[in-house]
Amino acid sequence: DFDLGLLQKKYREMGQELSVKSFCTLKVSQHEIPGLQSYNLDALCSFFGIKIEERHRAIGDAKATLELFRELYN
Fold this sequence. Notes:
Elements: H1 2-13, H2 25-32, H3 41-48, H4 58-73
């Protein structure tokens, strides 16, 4: 819920509306990319080539999750 709230806020700031009620990057990743050894944030960002700035800090993890969301949602 926390991450979804951040995503909704950022989409509004970009003049867009996020139409999903919830979105689990873990569950979607497991469905869309079967066979990975791990589905944690580091592994998924590595798979998509997403660089994580300030890992284990709220803003760094949120930004990485947003980029992961964009990869999975598009």
